[in-house]
Amino acid sequence: MTVITSSLIENTVAGDMDQIYKINPLTQNSAPSTVYDTPYAVIRGFHTQQGIVDGVRLSSALYGISMEEMERVEIINGLSGFLYGAGNVGGTTNFVLKRPTEKRVTNVTLGNYGGDQYFAHVDLGGPIDSDGKFGYRFNAAYQDGDTEKDNQHLKKSLISGAFDWHVTDDFLLQLEAGHRDYQLDGADSRFYFTGIKRPSSYDNDKTHTPTWSYNDVKTDRYGVNGQWTINEHLTARAAYLYKQDDRESIYTYPLLQSNNTFNVGVSNVAPNQMTAQGAYGYLDTNFHTFGIQHTLTVGISGDKYEVRQHGDSSSYVVFSGYDLRGIASLQQPVTPPIGTKPLYTASKAENRNIVVGDDISFGEHWSALIGFNRSTLENKSINASGVTTADYDKSDITPTLSIIYKPVENLSVYASYMEAMEQGTIVGSTYKNRDEVLDPMISKQYEIGAKGSLGNVALTSALFCIEKANQYSDDGTPTGTYVQDGLQVHEGIELTATGKLSDNLTIVAGGVWMDLTIKKSNNPALEGKMPSGVADKMAKLYAEYSVPGVNGLTLSGGAFYTGSYYGDGLNTDDIKDFVVGDIGARYATKIYNTPATVRLNVTNIANVDYWATNYSLGIPRTVALSIGMSF
User: Fold this and answer.
1) Taking residues 174-178, what's their average pLDDT?
2) Residue 299: closest CA among 53, 84, 94, 87
3) pLDDT above 90 covers what percent of the chain?
4) Please, is 243 exposed, middle or buried when counting C-beta atoms within 10 Å of its C-beta (0-12, 13-18, 19+)?
5) pLDDT tens digits, residue range 441-452?
6) Which domains does the chain possess?
7) Cα 198 to Cα 587: distance, rounded to the nearest angstrom
8) Measured CA distances, 558 to 22, 130, 507, 540, 591 (Å)
9) pLDDT (average), residues 363-372
């Protein structure tokens, strides 16, 4: 697990997760946030769009996440099924919200996230009463302006709050709620190339989309959790989270033709409603048997996801014969009205888990983690006439086993085997088999690794192998049939080094090399090929240097390499590797005796044009700055 603190988020003036995934040595930066407004990355060669909020897993895409309300971001590599139930195989992200503090917090930040995206952020918190029994945290942010891309405008507002009540010395009750409104005009295009060699890249400074394309998302979130220390041997903890996203959009999908013109698909989606609920309840107990220390966890977890849409929820039309410049000047099509019919429940998904895990210590050098998760997946897809078009209910037990050996104080080596159940994809509205629910999958992971420290630098290494069912569009376009066929086998090695090399120099460094292969496919042409959209190697370095003799001045920067990969399943469309570099600086001082920090961060300093995924262009040079004051 890599932990990104709120300090690093602030110091890099990160307005979204793009910057965080880029810095993390083991994640491939995937579709920019200006495509779907949801954190999107590749971990261990698998795409992830879902995640966890305060330890509660959700099956929905994580719309509504704002960096201004994050205490930290925990990026977890590998199967997480034992901890969180069915879900992301390569890894996942836990977004930890800011909580009340023991001391008063009054922070005000003004700045610019790039282009003309000026923003203001207020962060308040502290105890409510003199005894510290009650505490609060409040965050409000507003952002509005043109982005660094031509003809793209982003407006975002956020209000979130948290409340802590120390009911007794042993019982803590926590509440939180948030509302975010996100409006993007000029949503990035998603490009498709079928049997045609793509160019090295198009201009990343442009969206290559009409200004009337957009993505609007309104998110409401409510959560509660409690922690009760019953006695010195027994602790209970529970949590519940509710999130609702109301979303509407118009996207363009250019498909390059052999005559070097584009067929442009226009997808118009009426307002729909996505509701996600997650919860867990655990008991932790510690005890000894025959001199062996046990920390036993038993409990349940689960989540529900429901999509409500109109009977006439979307339209998809195609225009032919446009060059790249012509896509942006495309006139908005006149289509029959959508969103006029009543809302109905189009899909329901539920995941329930029974968890038993035992963290066993055999003494000073040996320990083990043994457990299982019994997962149940229920999924149903329903058409506008109320007819169930897909339905399954499947349960399975997935084990986990880890053996850890600690030869010396600052070194641990381990070996582990894990399985995880995963929900099959609910096919999107543009495909021929829209709303079909693909079968659930069981994935397997084998891993050995080591973790240690050298001075103030934490070192990690891992060798892993993951096996997972393969899913893809049969013709590589958003209008083909989305199928499940064959097996993805991802083998790789990860290395990281994080911490202080000296009193003045801090680094976050590392990389990954993988062998990615499709096996056991019914399509012989796919056998032995790499999955599309996934780089097999990355290497990254981010550093901060406190300048001696200049009190308060810190310089920062990094270089981030992503290897080449393929844009199609047949591996005929190769996408070039790329390197992007950042530079930054911050200066801590006082303004009228008030602590203040001025921050500057320039991403993609050379303004490199590149493909972030096989569909999406990368992020252009972005100059972000802020000034924060603590009163």
Assistant:
1) 97
2) 84
3) 74
4) buried
5) 888 999 999 999
6) 2-630 (2.40.170.20)
7) 44
8) 10, 45, 9, 7, 30
9) 94
